[in-house]
Amino acid sequence: MKKIIVGVTSIFLLLGCKNDSQKETPIEDGEIKTSQVIDSIEVTQNEKDIQQLENIEFKRKELIKKPDEKQQLEKLLVDKDFYKESDFYVLDFQYPYLNENLKPTYVNFNEYISKKYLNVKEVEAQILEDKELLCDTLRIHQTREKRIVNYKIYNVNEQLVSVLFYKENYYSGAMHPSFTFDCLNFDLERGVFMKYEDFFNEGSEEELRKIVNETIFEKVKTGELFYDCWEVTQDDFFKYKNNFVVDDHSVEFYFEDCVICPAYTGEYSIVVPLEKLLPVLRRYNLNPLKASL
Q: Does residue 213 lie in a domain region?
């Protein structure tokens, strides 16, 4: 059974200091004043909230600084950007195109990116729709929402580019951004996108889900930021089964907030070494992971 997701709690400010002139009532032996207990709980909760926010910010910076292979692929890539600012929102997109001069079939990748990530009208409509759900009195105090898209890219055996799109969504009134992820795997030789079944045996989802969960539990035992995380459910794994990037050594599965961990851990992915995936790895020549073993 999926655990109840624990959201990030709000940070409360401690209310003032006691008046210096106020005289304290003596406490009898064995008696604890109720106010002291409440103060202690508030301080403990406040410290916990601050630590959780620090965890999220730390993991955010770690994600942004995560190394990839953009520089090594500079001949293949055309780095693009789009920026738009209005009274209600800011859109800041960084995204890749493939150099079509190298191969005409790269147009398949570029057209998909244009339709999927540069559909600005759809993004704008969604932001404005969200704002309409708020009453006018609340809208007065809102700050502009932000949608930031950036990417990491990897190359496998010069046959495949594996792209992670990470989206920072800054919602009005939220203490920290929420993250969503999209992953694409594009076969450079054939000019086609590859899905789960191109890498793993057909019908292997449940076996691979168990491998992912075992890896999560190993992380929990180490005492890292995975301390409050839980297993991936069947429904969630099927929903996100194509959301992975690959390199020569591992496959990294990405999930959105609160799918495998509470938001306050800042953990969104799990890395599975290729050796663990041998039982489910599809054995055929078009699988770029086969050559990495």
A: yes
> Residue 76: CA atoms inside 13 Å, Cβ hemisphere, count?
19
| pTM of this structure | 0.77
Q: How many independent structural domains does the chain possess?
A: 2
7-57 per-position pLDDT tens digit: 333 333 233 333 343 334 443 444 444 444 445 445 566 777 787 778 778
**What contacts 160, CB < 8 A, 6 or more positions away?**
185, 186, 187, 188, 194, 246, 288
φ, ψ dihedrals at 58, nearest 5°: -60, -45
Quickly list DSSP for 120-183: HHHHHHHHHHHHHTS-HHHHTTPPPEEEEEEEEEEEETTTEEEEEEEEEEE-TT-SS-EEEEEE
Asked if residue 127 is part of any domain, the answer here is: yes
Cα 53 from Cα 39, distance rounded (Å)? 21
